Automatic annotation (TrEMBL), chains A, B:
Keyword set, alphabetical order: Lipid transport, Lipid-binding, Transferase, Transport
EC number: 2.3.1.176
A GO molecular-function descriptor: lipid binding
Protein name: propanoyl-CoA C-acyltransferase
GO terms (BP aspect): lipid transport
Lineage of the species this protein comes from: Bacteria, Pseudomonadati, Pseudomonadota, Alphaproteobacteria, Hyphomicrobiales
NCBIfam families: PRK06064.1
Length: 387, 387
């Protein structure tokens, strides 16, 4: 496999994008990534686009082809990939593989979603497309319900306390204040979090990521292509993708996602590193408790210690395991198909030393993108070129 | 790139599948393909699933993971791909690439759609997700409208006559009578076709493929893996994927799909053959006129001669350019995401010499799968192993 670089990045702000069509958001982000890399767009040999619910929510599919058309690309293979909330990570992996396997020298990975125009019932029904609707869906379960259950099991097994979980929210909302692309940073203490609306016990409003519109994009190139890149490139050390069960009953343990554990193992093996070598992490905090479970699944701390790490400030910028300096999904928002690409966007900025909430001397970054009830997972590892 | 074989095939009948869930259809087809190949399912290293409108029509996404779960596969990468009506062909290409590039030795390609439960307005709205809805969609255009326009241009430019186009319908409906998986074969002459309901001038009801449920699957293996396969394998010579415009105004000519022309050129080059070397073709006859345009785009006959070839019987089994001996989309039906996989299923049977409507001594087969307004195209070439 050939060495692959991220040579250009682009992203819209996440939030409400009113009248802008979904393809226009994606084209805007992709155009920025191409321009930043300083590469002629006719060199692009493949496009992968991550999207989850554009069909139900906007009535627009064939987004990969539409975006390529808008960008003026050649008659290249353009493919939409879907794996619920992991769609963006899956798009990145396929663009990476297109180059690593020698199919082409330049590839574009785009993620996009448009959700804020729909009412809550419509959005909830669309998001529930990520469950097995013959089992979990018909039971009345929603995703806040799933993560509320996971929290209760974590609390009972490990003694995880409300104020420890709140430390995740406080940190990520504060980090979001520093991120110009984030939908909603905030200064929040435990009292304010506990007083926010009850969504699904014990989850409160501030424990949940917002509904968002947005797009992010990455231009990837083969390292052996040529040296004249306009922006500082970052190396892809690993791109792993796994599956788990789409049913709660298919998970032997609600406090772990087997797809994350398997993807992390595969990614560490491909990169030739361990969790201890990672300097900065962007992981899938769709809910506050998810950051704790994901961190444990990724081996960033011992099992059952995720809550304590958050409460002790070890996951802040400046701590020994910085998690979601971007603000994570809780602050950035979660335009589903864009999230996995956005995580890499943020990590590239960290490895270039250009992030507005910079982790000092960050040389190795990890991103983690989880779909549905753990039905799909993407874990990627990136490295500063001079490290 | 490593040599790749189709080692097992499976398909449900196409038609109405009432209460069977969409994932169950896919699991049924995939299970048959795995069993036919006689391969331990734990060897499968990747799954690609082609589907177009399961989100809007069934409220179920994450089909790739759901199907893997139902099949009892390992924690492998499972990816849904979408490119409108070309989704199945795109799934096949990615399963092929996973093996050809050395990522894994065994991969599964599945295509599925469930449509017949929805009313016509809902289905039409879902199918229109394949257009650029800011231009063609809002104009009131539907896919019968697009192909009706293409027919009118073809008639004006080449003198194509109604009874020549009817020859496509008569042939494909007759072929469908021989195919046990087809939704609706029939014995139809020009008078009966002309007397069927007007859909969009000049398209009549029998010029249009029916709405369908169904699934098809292919198990692919690396040729260097091992020789103990239970069924006769067929070699993949080429798998090409291209894009075109998603807008009518983006096509300089309504009588040709540039995505097909580009995919055919790429596939012939990869296979090292020309159109004249192809013994049997399964192409995307979503409408009768499409078979004529597609045949010309694939170089199977000179430009403007597609209608004459049909009328002269040259595209029948026994003719010099046999097209759609399976009955094509017109007879088999068109469960959108399954169609591209089904075309390869039929072609594998031809190259094994096991097809119920066998083309004598068929050694090389071509499949052609076209999405939307030509926004995506997949052309694949397969070869009998001993040829």
């Amino acid at each position: 496999m050939r060495k692959v670089l991220v040579a250009g990045i682009g992203s819209t702000p996440f939030g409400r994008h009113g009248d802008i069509a979904i393809q226009s958001l994606a084209i805007r982000a992709a155009d920025a990534a191409i321009r930043e890399a300083g590469i002629d767009r006719r060199e692009i040999g493949a496009l992968y686009l991550g999207n989850f619910v554009s069909g139900p929510l906007t009535g627009q599919e064939v987004l990969a082809g539409l975006v390529a058309d808008g960008l003026g690309l050649a008659q290249i293979p353009c493919t939409k990939v879907e794996g619920a909330c992991a769609s963006g990570g899956i798009a990145f992996r396929h663009a990476y593989l297109a180059i690593a396997s020698g199919l082409c020298d330049v590839a574009l990975a785009v993620g996009v979603e448009k959700m804020t125009h729909a009412d809550t019932a419509t959005t909830t029904a669309a998001l529930n497309c990520a469950m097995d609707n013959r089992s979990d869906g018909v039971s009345g379960l929603t995703f806040p319900g799933l993560f509320g259950l996971a929290w209760q099991v974590h609390a009972e097994r490990y003694g995880t306390r409300r104020e420890q979980v709140s430390a995740v929210v406080t940190k990520n909302k504060a980090n979001g204040l520093l991120n110009p692309l984030a939908q909603m940073g905030a200064t929040l203490d435990n009292d304010q979090i506990v007083q926010s609306a009850l969504i699904c016990d014990p989850l409160r409003l501030y424990d949940c990521c917002p509904t968002s519109d947005g797009a992010s994009a990455l231009l990837l190139v083969a390292a052996d292509r040529r040296p004249d890149l306009a922006a500082m490139p970052v190396e892809v050390l690993a791109a792993a993708q796994t599956r788990g069960s789409a049913r709660i009953a298919g998970h032997p343990d609600l406090c772990t996602f087997e797809a994350t554990v398997a993807a992390a193992q595969a990614a560490y093996a491909q990169a030739g590193i361990t969790a201890q070598d990672v300097d900065v992490v962007e992981l899938h905090d769709c809910f506050s408790i998810a950051e704790i479970i994901d961190g444990e699944d990724l081996g960033l701390m011992p099992r059952g210690h995720g809550a304590a790490y958050a409460a002790e400030g070890r996951t802040r910028v400046g701590g020994d395991v910085p998690i979601n300096p971007s603000g994570g999904l809780l602050s950035k928002g979660h335009p589903v198909g864009a999230t996995g690409i956005s995580q890499i966007y943020e990590t590239v900025l960290q490895l270039r030393g250009q992030h507005p909430n910079q982790v000092r001397d960050a040389a190795i970054g990890l991103t983690h993108n989880l779909g549905g009830t753990g039905v799909a997972c993407s874990v990627n590892i990136l490295k500063r070129l001079d490290a």
